[in-house]
Here is the input.
Amino acid sequence: MLKRILFYFIPIFTLILVFFFDRSSIDYKQGIQNIFTHFLYQEALNTDGLILYEVRLPRIFLAIGVGMILSGSGVIMQNIFRNPLVDPYLLGVSSGAAFGCAVCIGIFSQEFLGFFAFFGAVGAVFAIVFFSRFTSKTPVSLILVGIVLSSLLSALAGLIKYFVTPDKAQAIAIWLLGSVSLATWRDVGLVFIVILLGFLPLFLLRFQLNALALNDIESKSLGVNPVFLRTVCIFLVGLMCGIAVSVSGTIGWIGLIVPHFVRILVGANLIKLLPASIFMGGFVLLLMDFCAKNLSTNDLPVGAISAIVGAPLFLVFLILTHKSRTF
Here is the structure.
């Protein structure tokens, strides 16, 4: 019962903060009424309605959508790599997408941002899998390869930022820090289409994905092709993370912390864990974005806030896990 209350507390608490304690001076009730009358009776949008419809709502929905992608991708990657320390950020997927964004902004047009982010993310995952074959093939070696590749791609993105014009360097810096403050309805639509295309097949494959938590020999004995299924998962995770990074920049820790927290509440079975993590991830990133918007007079990058909150929380998880095993 306590776990169920805790599970629904964060989304409800976040929505109360967003709609009743936001620093902006707009009247949400009046704004929502104005938006309804605008679409039903073609009434012109007033100031509150315009700000809410063009600025606040896209930002809220984009934060929810990106959080859902990062958290759900974290669950899938932890399952297929059989490693609880893996997430899109730590393993270099987000860095690959950010590198693709930096190349696109620095050399080509931003029109192809999603395309470059996708190939950067997928390329990073396949590079990690390829190079990890020449190591000891342990979970630790896989993470180390991911960290090395992530550092390399981040350094290359930093070099591109160093050599381009100031306006392009500023655009790249925004992607590297992570922010949803420039959200548009086009970004929101793109993210939720990708969520549907990515998570629907993964949800339908949830029973087979559970088998990937076993070793490959045991998976095959259950009729699962681990190599094919793992490749499908990597492709879908790369697609979703690439699009998420192209509209919000690199946001870490959501894909690592939220699955661990949700696993405590609903257990490790992917049938419950995947949808619960997707749901919770959206509201956790929305909460982080609320903090980024309201903690300072400046609009802080949400990627920095998620790292400041996520790193100590993960340390607490590690300590609690160690103590529970000790006693």
Summary: The mean pLDDT is 84.
